[in-house]
Amino acid sequence: MQAQTAAQQLLEQTFGYSTFRGPQESIVHHVASGGDALVLMPTGGGKSLCYQIPALLRQGVGIVVSPLIALMQDQVDALRQLGVRAAFINSSLDADTARATYQTLMRGELDILYVAPERLVAPNFLSTLHEIQQRFGIALFAIDEAHCVSQWGHDFRPEYRQLTVLHEVFPDVPRIALTATADAPTRHEIVERLGLDSAEQFISSFDRPNIRYRVTLKNNARQQLLAFLASEHPHDAGIVYCLSRRKVEETALWLKEQGWNALPYHAGLDAGIRQANQQRFLREEGIIMVATVAFGMGIDKPNVRFVAHLDLPKSMEGYYQETGRAGRDGLDANAWMVYGLGDVVNMRQLLSGSDTPEERKRLERQKLDALLGYCESTHCRHQSILRYFGEQHAGSCGQCDNCLNPVNTWNGTEAARMALSCVYRSGQRFGAGHLIDILLGKSTEQIKRFNHHSLSTFGIGKSLNQAQWSSVLRQLVAAGLLATDMEGYGGLRLTEAARPLLRGEAEIWLRSDPPDTRSSKAERASQTREAYKEVQDDPLWLALKARRLELAREQEVPPYVIFHDSTLLEILHQKPQDLQAMGRISGIGEAKLARYGADFLQVLNEHAD
Fold this sequence. Notes:
With 609 residues, the chain is of the alpha/beta class. The chain contains 29 helices and 17 strands.
């Protein structure tokens, strides 16, 4: 009971929240009592509190293992704002700063220390930790991004395999492993690799109800992106993901030419430029980051209002994690994606040409097929995502394209048989474009060269247009009736699953792709999102944001480290008249109230006058 009271006091007085969310309270008490834990919690669900509060409750310093330099910097900045003695040690520190941090650690003057896995398992650092444990104690080891231990995961880090040494060398120090994305096999591997067999598992819902998922066909992707940004996110921060470095740079430049504040980010950029762009994204308002998947893991920016994909991700895990970077403050956000059959072919070719073991390739193909099935599904997007992670959802979420505008289906059995027959009769070696030309009866040079105008399937598909045939072929690929032949440069071939349909033993219903129209206002907005949008031009809202940005620049931290948008929104609506009332706003603890309360009360008073 005493530990519960202490945890609640820390939550309220230091972090500024009145209640724990979901399983946070159970996790905090379990770890604070010395228990090991495996925590699965969606991005933005409050994982960091699950180890930060126990680290402050227990004697000694809490050691947090993280592979992400950006995350360390953000977390330490945020904790220092709260009055917590926090620091990090990684390769970004110069020699003098690193030495000073070590000295602070050796004096027992740190509550929480973030460290990279490579540094942690180094013999000299382990010796330092031994000394720290004997003199002051180690409160806990928190292993963040724990999915990195899995060789089948989407972000494998071999250094994580060595973290089993913590269990061996410090058996009495509790360990908490945390991740936002791990299916059942990955969870099993985390437990096995980190020696967490006796750890209690806390698995939260994977649902992100504030995210609106939308998937649409590519039809001039740049113009589609431009329409999406202009209609729904004219002043918002967001991320646009592209598959290649070249496409990242071209898209960022094009957006900039269109008047958008866009920056590129990929692993091939100069490290200084990459760091500068990342800092601008974190610390300025309304920046659009155009990036490969090299960007984002551990980026703790709560007011990312959209994540857009111009290319298909590699897996459902990757898609879930990338879209989960939107709306971490709980306000509505968009996950928007365009895709086409060319994306599928490109992804399969990349996978086929890689040096990974065949077993890994087979698993990655299955993951890509699952993502394709999600794209082509006519069911609730939230339901499809949760089903993939082994969780049930009732559907009818009201927060995805399929629920807001249910798609039409049609009996595509005859068209599918035509397409499959065309694939077979042309030799199972040609891509979608050539197959559609055969079905439409086009006399192209390639058709003449291969004598395909003499095929029985030549011209039998004139009842459908080119876009409709492209949809049929794409859905047949998604359904597993056709596969891309990598040896045949992306040509389509039949699978065993196509036999019943060709024999007349089965039928297939296909999705009717809607015409290319803009989403209606009713489709775009939920009440929370509308409330947020309505304040964008409010003079008081702009003044609150301006004061936050001014304070952030003075301290060289991102604005959200001062206050989240959701906290500013509550200040706007509640309009507290004194510090006591200000202290009741969610997200304002004692340290932030003392540091910033008067500044924001001044803004309120000026506008009241």
